[in-house]
Write a structure and sequence with these properties.
Elements (H helix, E strand, L loop, with lengths): L2 H6 L1 H8 L5 E7 L5 H17 L3 E7 L13 E4 L10 H9 L8 H8 L1 H10 L7 E4 L15 E5 L9 E3 L2 H15 L2 E5 L5 E7 L2 E2 L3 E4 L7 H5 L5 E3 L6 H17 L5 E8 L6 E7 L9 H8 L4 H13 L2
Helix pairs in contact: 3-11, 4-5
């Protein structure tokens, strides 16, 4: 029996849940484009931890609003997505203050947030990832000749598919790149993989059940993630079992290649023609909302939302 399966048994879960009551500060909100999602994640996590008997302080935090970190706490649970919360800045502050916190450390968080740097690690670890290039303002004019449509254009360091676009028209590519580099300074152009979109949560050192994401939209964008009730999340996936097992194993490898810890979520595309999987990115602080995928996968594995949050707390306390 795996550790995750053992933990999912009700007897073990109940026993561990009452072992120790902690003072936990749950941080959410922040300054990023994912602020509203982060606030929802923070509320859900705080409610779950309180249901387990922990003393929880809820805080909306920002780079110039750090008073919540002055409060005595056994542990900090970071539920901030995107800039400041997920890119290593907050983790660095917590390290400097000697605070124990859930999730990946500063270096791994910064690495995972930088899609270009993360892809470099994927390649080193033999985790397949789509062909890509980095576009700066001075390179916009030479990029279109090197690519056939469609392609994906996205910011290097944003989450929740913020400003991600699929470009089908060759005439539209240069204007899109110009707009993106004007906004972000640089952006990522990536080969478009046509096929099923999958995601795999990692908890501790184990992969959770794989989820296929089905959306009526062009791709799994912000709208589909958080607002579209028609998006489907499927566990009974019409792909060969060995391929799904390979993707789970590669997800753990990707998580470890970036130096992540406690939990993450790895996003994948599978080429419908060749059935080759391609890792897109690792999310070090995935969502904790009703629509969120890590809690869905944990529930499939036998862990309630409260179980999941409790297990994350325990993983941090074991370090």
């Amino acid at each position: 029996m795996t550790r995750l399966a053992e933990y999912a048994s009700s007897e073990v879960t109940v026993t561990r849940a009452v072992e120790r009551c902690l003072k936990i500060t749950v941080l959410s909100g922040g300054p990023s484009a994912e602020r509203e999602v982060s606030l929802a994640s923070g509320r859900a996590v705080a409610d779950a931890l309180e249901s387990r008997g922990h003393h929880v302080h809820r805080a909306d935090i920002a780079p110039k609003r750090l008073k919540a970190l002055d409060l005595p706490a056994d542990l900090v649970f970071i539920a901030l997505h995107g800039t400041f919360g997920e890119d290593g800045q907050l983790q660095q502050i917590l390290d400097h203050r000697g605070k124990r916190y859930c999730g990946s450390g500063a270096a791994a968080s910064a690495l995972a947030m930088d899609k270009v740097a993360a892809k470099g690690r994927f390649i080193e670890a033999e985790v397949p990832t789509p062909r890509f290039d980095v576009v700066t303002p001075g390179r916009v004019g030479m990029i279109p000749e090197a690519w056939s449509m469609p392609v994906v254009v996205k910011p290097v360091a944003e989450g929740s598919s913020v400003d991600c676009q699929i470009v089908h028209d060759p005439e539209a590519l240069q204007p899109v790149l110009q707009a993106m580099t004007r906004c972000y300074g640089r952006c990522l152009i990536e080969e478009y993989i046509d096929g099923p979109e999958l995601t795999v949560g990692v908890l501790g050192s184990e992969a959770l059940p794989t989820i296929e994401i089905r959306t009526a939209r062009q791709f799994y964008d912000y709208q589909a993630k958080y607002l579209d009730g028609a998006t489907e999340y499927v566990f009974d996936i019409d792909l060969p079992t060995p391929l799904l097992e390979e993707i789970q194993a590669l997800s753990v490898r990707a998580h470890q290649a970036l130096g992540c810890r406690d939990f993450s979520r790895v996003d994948w595309m599978v080429d419908a023609r060749t059935q080759r999987p391609y890792a897109l990115e690792v999310n070090t602080i995935p969502g904790f909302t009703d629509h969120s995928l890590l809690p869905k996968a944990a529930r499939r594995a036998g862990l309630s939302f409260a179980d999941l949050c409790q297990r994350i707390v325990e993983l941090a306390c074991e370090r």
